[in-house]
Amino acid sequence: MKDWSAERVAAAAGARLLGGRPDGPVGFVIDSREVQPGDLFIGLAGAHDDGGRFAQQALEAGAWGALVRPRYAHGLSGTILEHDEPLIALQSLARAWRQALGATVIAITGSTGKTSTKDILAALLVEHRATVASRGNLNTEIGLPLAILSAPAGTEVLVLELAMRAKGEIAELAAIAQPDVGLIVNIGPAHLEQLRSLEAIAAAKAELLAALPPAGTAIIPADEPLLDAHLPRGPRVVRFGPGGDVSLSSVTDEGVELAAFGELRRLDPPFRSAHLLSDLCAAVATAESIGVHTGGRFEVELTPLRGERVELAGGVTLINDCYNANPVSMRAALAELADERSAVRRIAVLGDMLELGREGPGFHVVLGEQATDARVLILVTVGALAELAGETFVGGEHFHAADADEAAAILAPLLQRGDLVLVKASRAVGLERVARRLALMRAGS
Asked: DSSP label at 61?
């Protein structure tokens, strides 16, 4: 956006320009501590503070300008944009930049696997098109605009992740992203506490499909009947998975074969786990829908804390999958653990799956059965809900910890060479501390 004038930036944001330099910003930040020279600092209002209070600090750090509420705008020195609601201004800026880019926009949502699917899709596209994908958790009403604004001029494909916790949130994000292609990875029991039923979750996810233009494309699972009532009229519908337009044909050590629109696609991804291969089918269906034919070897760097593998001292491998958890993703993670033939012992550190409402306890009781089926020999549970898994876990030892630090302390002396350790829970449980503490303990042992 550096080629835009300050007047054009202000107009796109719906803000009042109070003067300053004529050129445009080179970046956008909402944290004054992260300002780089040339950035536009946006002072957002939080639950306990208003970022506008830090506008002068951002300007002194070299910010191109500041976008703040009127009460913080006067008395500042620099390029100042004034708006009653800076978040709305940020979203308007992102929408204007998305339109100016002229890129094909792909929006991805789902109950689980949307981040890994985004990573895989970006890896498939980058060799063919100038592709930018949203980073980390830039998938909310604040993060999504920042992801769009990070795309440089010349971007041909913009891959965006959309998150939600309640009805209407996907529609809000889609109105900003204005997607050409909408991918729903799956429908599962995440956010049951807010939405109450799988049918309501499907309807909320399907807000993405309703936002597609008539010439757009909807990508959905072939085996998800809950979406059938929400299929759009006009946009093309592509299905992935067994019986769909793109499905998995075979898996070997040399690679995988996919049937894609009546043709065979041979790929060699750096993974073979079932849930990532399902994500691969979704990604291939999406790539093919915009004319990118996939094949051959490709590398993909998965977003941290989502199945990230960490080699600990003493020959122990840790699967750090603690960014989030729900019954679908937990089942998939345990299935992957079970499929690991190289593991001498399978160990699982499992914490609470949150936001499941009244059905939460039942899902955790089933979790113990799933850990048993995965041939887990040591199960460490963290949290009051996760402790219920111990009631149905058999065939191994069960330990319970009050928090992540206690879990690491319990597990560290039990680990042996060849162990494979899965660490997974909802984000609020903070099980990333288990990975950090185990790494430190093993290094010092």
From this structure: T
What's the CATH class of domain 308-444?
alpha beta
Phi and psi at 345, nearest 5°, equal -135, 145
- Report the range of poorest mean pLDDT among 101-105, 141-145, 338-342, 425-429: 338-342
Q: At what angle do helices 86-101 and 169-177 cross, to 10 degrees?
A: 50
Helices (H) and strands (E) in the chain, counts: 15, 21
Q: What is the pTM of this model?
A: 0.87
Q: DSSP string covering 409-429, please?
A: HHHGGG--TTEEEEEE--GGG
- Burial class (CB within 10 angstroms; exposed 0-12, middle 13-18, buried 19+) of 57: middle
The pLDDT of residue 442 is 59
In the beta sheet, which residues pair with residue 314? none
CA-based nearest residue to 353, from 328, 319, 320, 317 = 328
Residue 443: per-residue pLDDT: 58
For the chain, the residue count is 445
CA distances from 141 to 30, 150, 182, 218 (A): 13, 15, 17, 22
d(Cα 287, Cα 128) in Å, to the nearest integer?
A: 10
Edge-first strand order for the sheet with 376-382 is 308-312, 316-320, 419-424, 345-351, 376-382, 397-401
Q: What is the mean pLDDT of residues 157-162?
A: 98
Q: What is the pLDDT of residues 395-418, one digit of tens each?
A: 899 999 999 999 999 999 999 999
Across the beta sheet with 263-268, the strand order is 131-133, 157-161, 104-109, 181-184, 217-221, 236-240, 246-252, 255-260, 263-268, 296-297
Helix (H, G, I), strand (E, B) or coil at 378: strand
User: pLDDT by residue (tens digit) across 57-96?
Assistant: 999 999 999 999 999 998 888 899 999 999 999 999 999 9
Q: Which CATH number fits domain 102-297: 3.40.1190.10, 3.40.50.10770, 2.60.40.730, 3.40.50.720?
A: 3.40.1190.10
Q: What is the CATH number of domain 6-86?
A: 3.40.1390.10
Query: How many angstroms separate the CA atoms of 420 and 440, rounded?
Result: 17
Q: What are the residue boundaries of the structural domains of the chain, listed by start?
A: 6-86, 102-297, 308-444
HSE-up of 147 (CA within 13 Å, CB side)?
26
Report the distance separating Cα 265 and Cα 243, nearest Å: 16
DSSP 50: B
- Residues with Cβ < 8 Å from 136, sequence gap 6 or more? 143, 303
Under DSSP, the state recorded for 64 is S
Rounded to the nearest angstrom, the gap between the alpha carbon of residue 343 and the centroid of all alpha carbons in its chain is 28
pLDDT > 90: percent of the chain = 76
